[in-house]
Each structure stands twice: as C-alpha cells, then as structure tokens.
Design goal:
With 250 residues, this protein is an alpha/beta fold. 32% of the residues lie in helices and 26% in strands. The protein has 2 domains: 168 residues, P-loop containing nucleotide triphosphate hydrolases (Rossmann fold), CATH 3.40.50.300; 66 residues, no CATH class. Bound molecules: adenosine-5'-triphosphate (ATP) and magnesium ion.
Amino acid sequence: MATACISARSISKTYQTREGLPVNALVDVSIDIGEAEVLAILGASGCGKSTLLRIMAGLDLGFSGDMIVKGGAVKGPGLDRGFVFQDHRLVPWMTVGENVGLGLHRMEKAQRADAIEKKLELVGLTRFRDAYPAQLSGGMAQRVAIARALAHGPDVLLLDEPFGALDALTRVTMQAEVLRIQQQEKLSCVLVTHDIEEAIYLADRILVLSSSPGTVKAVIDVDMPKPRHRASVEFTELREHIYTTHFGTH
Ligand SMILES: Nc1ncnc2c1ncn2[C@@H]1O[C@H](COP(=O)(O)OP(=O)(O)OP(=O)(O)O)[C@@H](O)[C@H]1O
Ligand SMILES: [Mg+2]
C-alpha cells in the first residue's frame, strides 16, 4: 500500500449512558488508509462504524489512541476531509449552488462561483444550480451533498451510509457515481455501510467490525479490477464468504 493518508492507531472510545454507565463503542481499532484508497467499514448496527468515522473526521475528540491524518494528529474537522451523512442535510431555503458553496464564504465571489460550478459539473448537476432541495430526488440531493463535501477540494472523503435512504436502483447508480468521482479526483475514501455488496463494489479493502464492543474482526482485500460486476463469479463468491464467515447467514 502507498503511504498512509489516515492512520488509526489503537483507537478506543467509551460513551457514557444517561445513567453514567460506560458503553465501549470501540476497543483498540487500528487501520491505515492509503492515498486514493477506498476503505469500506462494514458491520452490524451499533458496532461503532459511525463513531470511528466521526473520530477520523475530527467531530469527536473524546477517544484514546492516535488518529493521524496526513502525518498530523486530528485536532478537529479540517478542509482536508469532506463528510457525507446518510441524510443529505441540505439547507432547504438555499439553492443547490448556495448549498454547495456553504463552506466557501472566505473565498472571493468569482473564485467561489467557479468552485461551485466545477463541483456541480463533477456530480452532473450543473443545470440544477438554481433549484431548491425540495425540487430534487433523493439521489440528486445526495449528489449535492457530495459536491458540498468536495467544495474545498479535500483529499479525503468520509461517507456515513450515504445511500442508506435511497431505493435499491438509485443506490446502484450512486455507487457507480462515487466510483467515478473517487477515481477522477484520486480521493481517499472511507465508506461506512451495512451493505456487503456496496462494500465489495467500491472498496479496495473492507474493515469488518465486530459488535459490542467494536473491534477489528477482519480486514479483507478486494482484489478485483474496477468497475466490478455484481454477477461475476469472484464477486458472488466473496459476498458469500463475507456473509457466512462474518454474519453467519446466507
Ligand atoms: N452519544 C452517545 N451516547 C451513548 N452511547 C452512544 C452514543 N453514540 C453512540 N453510542 C453507542 O455506541 C455504539 C456505537 O454506535 P455507532 O453509532 O458508532 O454505531 P454504528 O455502527 O454506526 O450503528 P448504525 O449502523 O446503526 O449506524 C452503540 O452501542 C451506540 O449505542
Ligand atoms: Mg452509524
């Protein structure tokens, strides 16, 4: 693997319940993500996937271990990392263009307009710059969320179940879109998902987390050329292997 872009070293995270009881969300999780690598984090609900991603994003600093991004310890969110949530979180009274430009207020006007235009072009929504979020389909709104996350030109894209709220066909289209964008922009990506097929389609490696507490159960290399074909023998065999080995079912 090339030099690590993100390095999680012995990350542990304990939450407190309202009653003050400890919840061990993550215990001793270590993983490296290389430049332009796609890592999928796969695991059952509640195993700590979002917690790990939030720590990478700098949205949660209350953990033990070291989270290193581009050689420096994470001290908070940064322009080097873009984040996409499960729900698009667009501001309803702002246009698509304004939503994409939300974090660019420090740029001068012309430079900002240019950055917005480029990102809308990247996600194929140039024509919708002046539309409002309510006028978009779920898939289009998620494209805008991706454009917004990439507005600053980060090297790393962190995605927390970005397609979980979409129908199955739109999800497949969006997975192909993320692959295209990731390859075009040479992004390092961390994709949290419940969906084994999504992980195999997109990831170079899959980190499987165990539940309660979240620990590293396996790291699986997905050694197939992209774009991958869901009906291929290799793809279906790997899906079968992950189901039976890590999730105990067909
Ligand atoms: N703010 C919080 N306070 C207390 N416990 C929390 C908090 N956030 C998460 N947890 C607990 O930490 C564990 C991991 O949560 P997390 O949200 O990271 O899981 P997840 O794998 O993303 O789940 P899902 O797939 O359902 O999104 C769970 O047991 C959860 O109940
Ligand atoms: Mg989650």
